[in-house]
Amino acid sequence: MKTLLLIDIQNGFCPGGNLAVPEGDQIVQVANRLIGSGHYDLIVASQDWHPADHGSFASSHADKKPFEMGTLSGKPQMMWPDHCIQGTEDAEFHPALNTAEIHSIHQKGQDPLVDSYSAFRDNDQAALTGLAEYLRSKGVTELDLCGLATDYCVKFSALDAVEMLPGVRVRFIEDASRGIDPVGVRDAIEEMRSRGVSIVDSSEAVADTGH
User: Fold this and answer.
1) Of 108, 144, 146, 155, catalytic
2) Over 80: is that where the pLDDT of 208 sits?
3) 2-52+89-207 homologous superfamily
4) Is 138 part of the annotated catalytic residue set?
5) pTM score, whole prediction
């Protein structure tokens, strides 16, 4: 059972969004090629879905500006611009993304007291999105993932996939992803590789003859 996981391909993370990732919109056509390739048995997506008063927003702290470090629930926290607020256009999937073929959407970041990068669980690793249980119920054996941003939500999703889905082959599709910081992207890829995640591009991903 081959699965494609699309991570946070939302307006908020694309140019013009509230927390834009450089070239974030350029992955959409790559993601659509993957979706339409016929290679995957199952396609799932995660969606950042914050309440307006989320504690990771700089606006929730009188003394903080976006991209400064602060604390949230006693733990270090990057302070973000308000983004992907539930029900807003910023939180919607990019309009060019082929969402008609997505079988299941898992929303994250809804608890105002803890941030949530991974598609699988909050950063405190307590609250689950239900994604791991869903994938196990479907008998997933191979998981390819991509999206925004490589050095945050994609990386943490990949690492959680390795930990929470033992025995599943996990691959990161590099050209279907973009990151915030070039150094952070490089470090994220090395960390993923060191944890057993294979690094591939989209043509390699769908050229796999094991289907």
Assistant:
1) 108
2) no
3) Isochorismatase-like (3.40.50.850)
4) no
5) 0.96
